[in-house]
Amino acid sequence: MTLVRIQNVMSNELSKRIFLSRPPEPPQEFLLNDPTNSIFLGITKLFSVPFTWTYSNLTNPHIAVVGITGAGKSFFVKTFITRASYIWNTNAIIIDWAGEYVAWVKQSGGTVISLAKGDYLNIMDLSGMKPIDRVKQIMNSLDILTDISGFPEQRRLTAEAIEQAYINAGFNLAAPASPDGKAPTLKDVASLLDEKLQEGSYEYPAELENAIYRLRQFSREGEDYFARESTIDLGKLSSSGLVDLDLSSLPDERFRALAALFILQTLKEKMRAEGWSAARGLKALVVLDEAWKVASDERSDAITIIREGRKYQFGLIVASQNPTDINEAIFSNVGTTVMLRIRFEKFMNYLQGSLNFSGFIRREITRFGVGQAAVDMSFNTSVQFPNTFIIDRIIGEVPLNSYTITIAEVLNPDELAARETQKEYSFEKMDLTSKFVESGLSSQVIQDIFKDMDDKNRMVDVRWLVQTISGRNVGREIIISFLRSMGVSDSIITRIFTYTS
Ligand SMILES: Nc1ncnc2c1ncn2[C@@H]1O[C@H](COP(=O)(O)OP(=O)(O)OP(=O)(O)O)[C@@H](O)[C@H]1O
Ligand SMILES: [Mg+2]
Known about the structure:
Layout: H1 2-21, H2 28-31, E1 39-43, E2 50-53, E3 63-66, H3 73-88, E4 91-96, H4 102-107, E5 111-114, H5 131-145, H6 152-168, H7 186-199, H8 205-216, E6 242-246, H9 253-274, E7 284-289, H10 292-296, H11 301-312, E8 314-320, H12 328-333, E9 336-339, H13 345-355, H14 359-367, E10 373-377, E11 388-391, E12 402-406, H15 413-417, E13 424-428, H16 429-439, H17 443-455, E14 459-461, H18 462-470, H19 476-486, H20 490-500
Parallel strand pairs: 3-8, 3-9, 4-6, 4-7, 5-6, 7-8, 12-14
Antiparallel strand pairs: 1-2, 9-10, 10-11, 12-13
The structure holds adenosine-5'-triphosphate and magnesium ion (MG).
């Protein structure tokens, strides 16, 4: 007994001493991996080791990225998915809450899907699934996004009507759907409930009315973003290179969350159906940027993907300004946490509480400049060194310096519908500068305008641009000459000024 206790004391002493004498950075063999099978992210601050990320020594491939606005979360995400695509041919699907990635994805040759701006999703689409499974998923989304779970009878009526709509459309509830079957929509479901109400034989008409009302919120004309035939091939989403799902035009957070949940559900099914393959690296990365409702609810499939993703070579990247918006289950399960600059004590306490880093790291994080990061990794073997280290700066792909000016908002419906109408103009910074100079803008004004455009992620509405330029006391002739040099027609220029003043 005594002997054992002495041994314990000794080994405690020993581990303390090891801790003190070891540098607060994981040893090289954990940071520096085969460059053809890992992703370079930056140089460590203390010992200048090139840090290359691979998930083969981590508990899983998922990543949480946190930091204040402007700290560099999106920059990290872009860098990461670009390199993953070089190294492993990894596909990426960005669930883009604020439309932040649109310009970059376009410039990188990826596909942008703009919901409510020409693209639609039918959340009853099956893409090979059994209808009965989709019914469960739709009910799950309604549970997360509406009050339906508090009304069991309405919930039962709704689920039943969704099943009936599939049966009426010729599907077998328990059989995987054939790809060419045309799925019903939530409009059909609401109509079925309506018919039941009209029949008058159901004993609780108020329950029916409320169930219909809830569904109509997602299927009303003009707000039927998820109740029309899909314009997207869902089956190809995770194998189409770089895809940006732009949710910014949807009217509110609930619609955005519904789209995000639906996409996650579909990807989860796809991931399970495809299973593991001998391919190296990651097959697909799913990015959730600022999707708080989707990242915070424990019933969300973000959490299922986190739990199962490793075996299917699917990685999830969750980015947020507010770490407390990310569900504990995500935080405790991700293999990598990237902490950019953080200011609020509350957030810092939350992170330090769950990751257990030192006071030194904590102080550093509050002082970070743009792109500086502390990285915490959870290795799949037990290790004798601290898991958190600092990289001097995320070393990214050279940012593309292209600026996009959109005129869509001043076009009339016919022009918008016409294929040949140009709806936006993109220029390299150099080209745009020379247009500004030739139109007669001073170099100070040009500098200011670029700064303002950078703040808008280099994608601006023409009316905003005109207002920004006139706000600097620039005459109208100069602005007109600039718009002409861009290639905008005089009739549209007139309209721009009408809409701007
Ligand atoms: N590691 C870096 N190296 C060079 N520039 C960077 C780096 N990180 C970020 N930047 C630049 O800083 C600006 C802000 O970065 P970014 O858009 O990634 O911030 P964010 O954290 O996503 O902010 P938000 O929460 O507002 O979306 C961008 O112009 C970006 O190009
Ligand atoms: Mg961002």
